[in-house]
Amino acid sequence: xxxxxxxxxxxxxxxxxxxxxxxxxxxxxxxxxxxxxxxxxxxxxxxxxxxxxxxxxxxxxxxxxxxxxxxxxxxxxxxxxxxxxxxxxxxxxxxxxxxxxxxxxxxxxxxxxxxxxxxxxxxxxxxxxxxxxxxxxxxxxxxxxxxxxxxxxxxxxxxxxxxxxxxxxxxxxxxxxxxxxxxxxxxxxxxxxxxxxxxxxxxxxxxxxxxxxxxxxxxxxxxxxxxxxxxxxxxxxxxxxxxxxxxxxxxxxxxxxxxxxxxxxxxxxxxxxxxxxxxxxxxxxxx
Length: 287
Fold this sequence. Notes:
mainly alpha
């Protein structure tokens, strides 16, 4: 069941990325970040009101750290999508499992197996191989933002796991993240120049960004809560596959073979690192 949740999340995240890239022609990244959080907050808020669910939580600090790190990562990621090919931006963002594995091993002292450090080095070599032959000079900012979003995402994922361990429901975790994203993006929206009017196509794209995003987060949060953290992180790499296919289909983003080699190396190294750093004891997995 965990696998299905994470694969569904990956497809939805890839779909959100497509909407972000399409909308970036009409909207600034600041506007997209606000609408991403605001629409998601409305959707989850409606569910909360309809079910009369409690929003009060004793874990506000963990929600704050998760929300702040997720917001920063989202801003960096949206800018990256607008500046570089979709497959490249998504792959760089999904270096997060490498950093997550490193954080779990270094900060939480979770046991690692022989070959773990080799896998991490190979993953970062993959980043160099992906970037070096494929990016023009004006795309390096997007590349650095994409990689930075992967680093910050690993902090968000650690706190997603923590909230799951504390018994927080998925909808509450996603609601507070969405609310913090909307609050963080609002000043950017108000200060953005020019401020765009929204036509019918724009609303559809914004609903796609927010709707796909919130559904993806619910699936991802369920996967992290119900299964092994590092297994979920490994399955998250299917977003790279979905995004690569969509980039080719929609924008003819045919990358050179060196880029595909780098992407494959990142994915393989990320999966290897997560497996080599997993707990030696058996973690409970529930459907």
